[in-house]
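pinned: reference chain
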Amino acid sequence: MYLKRLSLTDFRAFSRLDIEFPRRVILFTGANAQGKTTILEAISYLANFSSFHVSQDRQLLNFNMPVEPIMVGRIIGEFYSRGREHTLEVRFIQEYNGNSNQARFRKQVLLDGVPKRISNLYGHFNVVSFLPQMSRIIEGSPSDRRSYLDEILSQIEPGYVKSLSQFNKVIQQRNALLKTLFENNGDLRQLEAWDNMLATHGAVLMQGRIRALDELESHAFDVHQRLTRQSEILRFVYTPSYDPYVNGGEQLSLPVSNEPNYSHLSLTELEKGYKDALVLSRQTDLYRGSTSVGPHRDELRFLSNGIDLGYYGSRGQIRTALLSLKFAEVAWMKARSGETPVLLLDEIMAELDPQRREELLAIVNEVEQALLTTTDLSMFPDAFVESCDKWNVHEGIVTRIV
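pinned: its structure tokens
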């Protein structure tokens, strides 16, 4: 899989951009705040349909656009996958109706010119992104790590997006019912139908996460060994909010040294265990007014030589572990889908010593297509720079360096 062409119209800082990409390593250079990362953001959006910089899609429209009754921003990507060429287009549409100053915003996605539901488009174009702020996957909150797992599984695991959407809807409905039952001293058996639905969808999420992490750890181990010259061992530890080996119970926080493994549990076993846990936690949930157990409470930790990097890792260790994870994603996605995802790397050389930079660039050269950004070309060896397709980005203008 590789990206052949990217076209942007009124997207962020770009009024208009049209680039054709070779099937190789591409290096964008230029000062900060010129638009380098925005290019990666647009490419990533074609895979995840969300921005890694802003929380609302309307913020992706070029703020310099003249105000008109209908304002449209576009990302168009032409890519090659599974022996065929495809075009994926995302439109950001802002409309002003009548005399109202209130704008209506919507987005539309088309595959090969045909409008599609976003939920049906995950997996057509896959990317793996690395940005410095992604250290929150290791250092941030449990919700950051859950979001990370949901994002990569949405690209690869069939049916995951649907189960995730249904799970979130049922959680909201169950929580609303819990508050009603508490206020009216209602019968907790009214939760039965919601518990059944939560268990069905929640088991799919848990099994997807368990299997993905087991496979990712296997790929990351080898990469991390290369980056650290066999001096560190990287492990991933998945901790469900309840122990699947014990039918139910309060939220569990296992010490990471226990490193339980749930990969052999079947979907039926996970569903039954989750259903039992929900039943046992009903009284607690009633007082809290929220559901206390389930995939929305799960945790993931990263260990290097037995040390939890989220608490005790140095900046260099965290950066190295994150790079290992990202390269593991590439190998994992290729193994799952048969296609190598496009690799997006933003300022990857910062905070890495010369040894790790050397190993990193050797790995970059092994992928089908990688797009990198930098403010300083001198961070890269001359031979690497010469082998890349190079573009300079300045105030939203992209110029090829010959």
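why pinned: Residues 248-257 have pLDDT under 50 and may be disordered. The two ends are 26 Å apart (CA to CA).
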